[in-house]
Design a protein that fits this description.
The chain is an alpha/beta fold and 309 residues long. It contains nine helices and 14 strands. The strands form two sheets. A nine-stranded mixed sheet has the order 3-4-5-2-6-1-7-8-9, sandwiched between helices. The protein has a five-stranded antiparallel sheet with strand order 10-14-11-12-13, with helices on both faces.
């Protein structure tokens, strides 16, 4: 693991009352050994069991599980620099924005932090209160949809407070207004911790480990693929296009037949995908894992694309 490897960062936006703090609480309570730093506008709103608290200062709460809550303020860049350059940097950073924050504006701020080489922005989450949607006026509804459109993952929360017809209407609205966002329906922000991290691309700090089979929750399923030798570039590109239409998240290593000495790291979150060169030794030709909703992932069609490889 490189000492100066950037830390994965996930942002969480949404109107007031959508459930952002509830989601953050779930992540902190089930960190499973991962050291997470959470930047929030007011960490006093985070309901933390006192038994979990190790130290409290003016702008920081340190937890016994290694997680930290910090206030999101003008010194954000300085705080991130301090945390990521310490001897034991965090495994991941979460940023919970204000309920009136524009995700586009927040993205601009995060780009500055990423440009400094401190973090890598893996994905953004937008949370929607299913009950609140119907009560918003036209302008606020349009604003909500504009915000959802720029995020890779949309959580429609509090689905237990609306009937099936309202939920269907919300899904249809998002399908039109945010067609490239993947939508998850939750109650009390009850998305499982590890699947959420997989979807968001938040692996371990530094070069991620080779793909592994995850234990999905919340109606998720995983699909894996391995090839013992380099694969045709056009075949892999066809697979990537198909995965982007079926899966929420995919990652792994690939070596192309026309460039056998240049292993690549493949990362896909929603419709966004990257191929980056890697310096470490990679054996075989391709190792991938993809994660998505059981209702959308068709393992047979994915395998068919690469069957003869």
């Amino acid at each position: 693991m490189a000492a100066d490897a950037p830390v994965p960062l996930l942002s969480i936006c949404g109107f007031l009352g959508a459930g952002k703090t509830t989601l953050v609480n779930r992540l902190l309570a089930t960190a499973s050994g991962r050291r997470i730093v959470v930047f929030v506008n007011d960490f006093g709103a985070i309901n933390i069991d006192l038994d979990l608290v190790e130290t409290v200062t003016e702008d920081r709460i340190s937890l016994k599980n290694g997680c930290v809550c910090c206030t999101l303020n003008a010194d954000f860049l300085l705080q991130v620099k301090t945390l990521t350059r310490q001897e034991a940097p965090p495994d991941a950073i979460l940023v919970e924005a204000s309920g009136v924050t524009d995700p586009v504006a927040l993205d601009g701020s995060l780009r500055e932090v990423e440009a400094a080489g401190l973090v890598t922005r893996d994905a953004s989450i937008y949370m929607i209160d299913a009950e609140q949607v119907g009560a918003l006026d036209y302008i606020d509804t349009e604003l909500l949809l504009d915000h959802a459109n720029v995020c890779e993952l949309v959580l429609v929360n509090k689905t237990d407070l609306v009937d099936a017809a309202r939920l269907t209407a919300i899904e249809e609205m998002l399908a039109v207004s945010a067609p490239y966002a993947h939508v998850l329906k939750t109650r009390h922000a009850d998305v499982a911790f590890l699947p959420l991290l997989e979807l968001a691309g938040m692996g371990a700090r530094g070069q991620p480990k080779l793909p592994h089979r995850v234990t999905p929750g919340h109606d998720f399923t995983s699909w894996t693929f391995e090839a013992p030798h380099p694969v045709p570039r056009e075949r892999f590109e066809a697979l990537a296009r198909l995965m982007s239409s079926q899966c929420l998240r995919a990652k792994g290593f690939v070596i192309f037949a026309d460039a056998p000495e240049e292993p690549r790291l493949f990362n896909m979150v929603g419709k966004r995908a990257t191929l980056e060169p890697v310096s470490q030794s990679v054996t075989g030709g391709c190792r991938l894992v993809a994660l998505g909703l059981k209702t959308r992932v068709d393992p047979e069609s994915l395998a068919r694309v690469m069957r003869e490889v």
